[in-house]
Amino acid sequence: MNLPDTGLPVEASIPGLRAALRERTAAVLVAPPGSGKTTVVPLRLLDEPWREGRKIVVLEPRRLATRAAARRMASLLGESVGETVGYVTRTDRQTGPNVAIEVVTEGVLTRRLQTDPGLMDTAAVVFDEIHERNLQTDLGLALALHAKGLFRPDLRLLAMSATVQADRIAGIFDGPVISSEARTFPVDIRYKPGPRKMWIEDHAASVIREALRTDEGDILCFLPGFAQIDRVARSLDGIDAECHRLHGSLPLDEQDRAITPGPGRKVVLSTDIAESSLTVEGVSIVVDSGLARTPRFDARTGMTRLTTIGVSKASADQRAGRAGRLGPGVAYRLWSKMEHAARRPDIEPEILSVDLAGFLLDLLHFGVDDPSTLTWLDPPPERAVAEAVDLLVALGAIDADRRLTDVGRTMATLPLHPRLARMVADAGVDGWTACLLAALLDDRDVFGGPLDERPVDLALRVKAVVDGDRRADRRGADRVRRTAEDLARRAGISEGPVRTERVGPLLAHAFPDRLAIRRGSPGRFQLRLGATAWVPNTDPLAPEQFLVAADLDGKRKDARIRLAAAIDPEDVTFAFADQVDERTELAWEGNRIVERFERKLGGIVLESFERRARPDDRTRAMILERIGSDPRTLDWSDPARSFVERIGFLHRSDPDSWPEWTVETLAADPEPWLAGWITGATSLEEVREVDLLTVLRTTLGHDKAARADREAPVRMTLPSGREVKVDYSGERPSVAVRVQEFYGSTLTPQVAGRPLVLELLSPANRPIQITDDLAGFWKGSWSEVRKDMAGRYPKHNWPEDPSTA
Fold it and tell me: How far is CA 749 from CA 354, 400, 715, in A?
């Protein structure tokens, strides 16, 4: 290839790099910003003998950098993109049959490795700006190392960066580190922290105005997100310079105008997209907010949020270096020197802090079910992997053994998070609506303005995109439609009518764990996992019974719902039919048993009611258990209690012939004797209506009960002729009667061959003697008792010999 010397600093490193890739097949190139590594190195490798007509694939972390790198290389060759140099992103491609260098975004490389694990048409993979440590970069690197080890020992791997732990990567690559000296100019670092209560946007705008007055050259300002860029741009209205926004979601023509020189001074407001791998021409002043938006996954809530964080020292140096590309420059840091000293030295790898569901699905599609079998710069955390497995199982993408299901294989082919991929893959006749909804959820910048002015209802957002509603940014809406068309093409879905009423049921496929039911006042909801969430009570979704929340603010308690759609109860039942838990429980309510019915989906109670229980084996068991725990539950009538006591006495007299009954032992184990008599009972009142005497006599048997009546009679006739009740509650049966009832008798009555205990009473019914030997009493202590009684009760007869009275 006849490429003249570009004069860029990286040219001096090319010979060493070529030698390393010939001898070791892998290398790490450390080259500062502005050295030309992104565009020069791939071109200088085209004539290497190991290429053998195959492609050099250059991996870039961002779409904007991908297009810009391809265009710059093509211009160095005097060609158009698509001839020798092409590019492929998820939504755009310019390539051709003769392309030898293909610049791709990270996900493109992953999908190629899944379909062609050996990358048979590829001679080398170049990982540009590897220091950014995006998840897809780490995944692509691990899969490329795997492919090199198993299928392609001749595959060349090259990692390039300005700031990187070179020795560490070189150890994994088993290749040398090659350094390139940069043509750098001094950058004057100025720390300019703003007032404590001042918004970063206001402070940035103020410093930009100051720099325009005091310094010369174009300004590149780093801000965390599009919202901050937009606010600063509005604040700079009227300045004596062109103001450009630079963000990955902007149209290509606007991005091009931001990165190319203009006729006068310009101010470029950018996210960290311009930090590395992308050159903004003409910049000599950098204003750095020191902030970036980065994804953070909370395993406890299962949600990933873009969080604004302070950038690392390495990132701050990268940003400042942009001011020293053309000559001496100035970098304003909108924080203090002391704060800078406390910042972490390097970028935190995304693999340690983001949702790994898509990452794991990609691995499984590649054929790896255990991430630990691959080589990583930083291995994925076990807990995050476990959370990803749980989500993929819940989405039906994998089974319990981590095997891809049919729907999982379809999901893996779609460039979407697994949640959205499941929604598209399972949409059926609503496929086109699902594609639009997925594209909308994948694009966070279609609806701008204050949070409270954006519609929470995704059905309204879809309608606004389709109808060209003014609430949806026109360019963003066009971008969503293009993305939806690409998804539909990949999924084999034809465009059709958009049914916004199906947005809720579609979301249920993507977010089955975020179904919410209204609890209490309008706007208050309970999520399926148990936590509470809310929308403003003035929001149109506030009165709905069920919502599916697609986005929440990440709070673990009482999260604000930012995006959601309503779903009918019938659709809830249909969507979650195999996950609804119907439970019927029996419980005591006072003295009666009630049946409580409940239909639950996770922590959400879909339906519940209470009714009187129907009698069955369960109610009978509950009643018997209640009796066993509290003997007072049974209504022991005097005849029933007496019968138990009589049988207890007979047992003590003849243990082999009679059961050992007491009220306590019978109540403690009621099942053998009572169960058959309470089959229709569901309350203690019904149990107490049962005649326990009849139950016990039946249990004992007719013949034995009659024998008990004979051997342990309920009543006995006294010598006086009167009948009295025998008391069997003590150790021995007894009767309590006035002593006069036994005048004329010397025989002590017996029960079951044993004498009764006689409690002989005075006329005032006070005990005067307890004895089981009446004759002995008459002959013995009666004389003393007689004297006492005669003195107390002179009107009564107190004979000297009662046996003959």
Answer: 94, 81, 12
Amino acid at 438: A
Residue of 528, 603, 520, 516 lying closest to 567 (CA atoms) = 516
Q: What is the dihedral angle through the alpha carbons of 173, 179, 183, 185, rounded to the nearest 10 degrees?
A: 90
Contact 25, 155 (CB under 8 A): yes
CA 107 to chain centre: 26
Helix ranges (H only) for 236-322 are 252-259, 313-321
Q: How far apart are the first and last CA of the chain?
A: 149
668: helix, strand or coil: helix
CB 704: neighbour CB atoms within 10 A? 16
* Sheet containing 85-88: order of strands: 93-94, 85-88, 101-105, 55-60, 122-128, 156-161, 26-30, 177-179
The H helix count followed by the E strand count for the chain is 29, 31
pLDDT per residue as tens digits for the range 641-651: 999 999 999 99
Phi-psi region of 790 (alpha: psi -120 to 50; beta: other; left: phi over 0): alpha
φ/ψ bin of 449: left (φ > 0), alpha (ψ from -120 to 50), beta (otherwise): left
Long-range interactions of 203-211: CB distance < 8 A, separation 24+: 203/334, 204/228, 204/232, 204/287, 204/289, 204/334, 205/232, 205/235, 205/236, 207/287, 207/332, 207/334, 208/232, 208/236, 208/239, 208/267, 208/287, 209/236, 209/239, 211/285, 211/287, 211/330, 211/332
Q: Of 780, 779, 781, 785, whose CA–CA distance to 804 is shortest?
A: 779
User: For residue 393, what are the β-bridge partners?
Assistant: none
DSSP state of 101: E
**Closest C-alpha to 276, from 30, 78, 86, 27:** 30
Maximum pairwise Cα distance, the chain: 153
What lies within 8 Å, CB to CB, of 482 at 6+ separation is 91
Percent of the chain scoring above 70 in pLDDT: 95
What does the alpha-carbon distance between residue 33 and residue 182 come to, in Å, rounded to a whole number?
A: 8
C-alpha pair distances (Å), 541 with each of 240, 261, 533, 544: 46, 48, 13, 5
Q: Which of 496, 354, 516 has its CA nearest to residue 427? A: 496
Q: How far apart are CA 621 and CA 407, in angstroms?
A: 47
**78: helix, strand or coil:** coil
- Please choose, from the candidates 219, 328, 223, 319, the residue with its C-alpha nearest in 3D space to the C-alpha of residue 264: 219
Determine the Cα–Cα distance for residues 675 and 677; give it in Å rounded to an integer.
5
Residues 194-236: tens digit of each pLDDT: 988 889 999 999 999 999 999 999 999 999 888 888 899 999 9
**Distance (Å, rounded) from C-alpha 801 to C-alpha 744?**
9
Q: Is this model's pTM higher than 0.90 or not?
A: no
- Interstrand relation of 581-589 and 122-128 (parallel, antiparallel or unpaired): unpaired
pLDDT digits (tens, 9 = 90+) for 240-258: 888 998 887 666 677 778 7
Q: What is the DSSP letter of 371?
A: G
